[in-house]
Amino acid sequence: MTAPLARVPKDAHGWLRLVTGEIVEVTATSGGHRTSTTRHRHRAEAGVATTGGTGRATTTDAGADALRLAVTRAAAAVVPGRVRPPAPPETAESHDFADPRPFTPAEVADQVTALASLLAAATVPDLRWTVRAHTARETSRRTDTAGMAVVEETTRAWLHARLTTPAGAVTITGGFARHPADLDPAEIAAAALAALATGKPWSSPLQPDLVTWSPAATARLLTLLTPRLLSPTPTPGPAPTSGPGPGPKIAATLQELVLSGEQQKAAASVAPIEDAPGAGHSRPAPASAVTLVDDPWHRTGPLSSTFDTDGFRTARRLLIDRGRHQPPRGRTGPATNLMLARHGDQAPPGDCLRIDELHDAALGGADRDTIHAGFTGGRITGGRTHPVRGLLAITVTDLLAGVHGVAGPARFLLDLAGADAATLLTAPGARLRLRLG
């Protein structure tokens, strides 16, 4: 793999990464449709970093000519951005993010069958569901112009269910493990059915005091806001009128307010949530109970890796420490394994608006500080859950000011592999703008 790196310019740092492996995916639906695929993966990534920026190229051809061409393309594609890191010493490393037990496509299919059978036996009228399993065993070999050689062994397994009803109820749940045998179809089925809204669709006006964001919705929020958490402190000046970068207002909000003790100052009208008689839940913890970590070397993280997608060495980053935002230091690349940690458990809330799924979530507004999204969820009242769907909007300031803590088990979801999210508890009240329909 070292020969193609001869095409890296003398004043640049270059690397090659070759990934090989086997991926098994199985899908089953309530309509009787079932698919099973096994793919053998070969992918090569080349990167060139200079003092002016970084260029990358990928190819599915692992031949010597294709690798040389990938290095040439990466050198020609250098754009301003993350700059060349200090040259590391010559070394060889081996990292294990894998379970040594073998698994076969038949075992993966059996997991899907078991979960599908449990959902098919549910007594919910006209329930529709899709069950998906994804497993992978991969080997990554990386080398660079500084003489470093790294080998990583990785296994991943997901089991995932999405349930819908004609009334508009939607729930998504699943589990992640290093081996499919460590996933429990019964636990996933029970969690999915327990969260499914079974009452009549809600049509009355909504102005909830308490909002809970399911792990799927919380993960969307994390992936939407994390690039802002990694942004440097903004400099004074007008907000940009276009482009992907955060405006000064949202960046300042995240620097000064994110899950911190300032929420009462920024949102004085948000009253504390008191225990409701018979609600069956404890008072939510203050926002200082929340910690958010990007941990690329975590043993159980699905995207654990010693190098990120830009080719730079990864490191653990503390983004929010017990409610206080930590300005980025050192590595500034993309997040890998986002871990939403808790300090003490929270019981599930009682009466509330539950956001189960966010669609097309984006940041908008003049300062790109307002979250807009379509949503599906449920209005929980009197022990029953009524399906709700529509559009929502809330500023980042109001959302973060209302955070009280998290509840329930954390989950890595199949379509949001990089976020280990639990149920987020917020009290935005009237500050969450809703339009049902």
UniProtKB/TrEMBL annotation:
Residues 30-58, 228-250 are annotated as: Disordered. It comes from the Bacteria. Residues 233-247 have a biased composition (Pro residues). SUPFAM superfamilies: Putative modulator of DNA gyrase, PmbA/TldD. This is TldD/PmbA family protein. GO terms for biological process: proteolysis. It comes from Allocatelliglobosispora scoriae. GO terms for molecular function: metallopeptidase activity. InterPro entries: TldD/PmbA_N, TldD/PmbA_sf. Signal peptide: none annotated.
